Amino acid sequence: MKKQEIVTFKVxxxxxxLLRDIPNRSEFIRNAIVSxxxxxxxxxxxxxILTPNQKQxxxxxxAEHEVKTCSECQERYLVCxxxx
Length: 84
Hints:
Blueprint: H1 13-20, H2 25-37, H3 52-62, E1 65-69, E2 76-80
Antiparallel strand pairs: 1-2
C-alpha cells in the first residue's frame, strides 16, 4: 500500500463555513481535486494563460478551426474547419 501524504491549505471563512457540515471533508476534497484535474485545459494546464509559443500554436490551429457556443448549454467548444 502506498504511503498517503498530507496536504494542507488555507481557506477563507465563507468557504470553511460551507465545508464545515460535510460529513467526510477529506473524501469530498479529494474527489473535487480529482474531478478538477480531469477538466484542466490541455493547452494552459489550468493557468488560464498561454505562453508565447502556445499562443503561436493556437493561432495556427485556430486559423482552420473555430470556437462556437452551443445553443443548448451555452458552453464554448471547438469545431474543425477542415473540409469546409
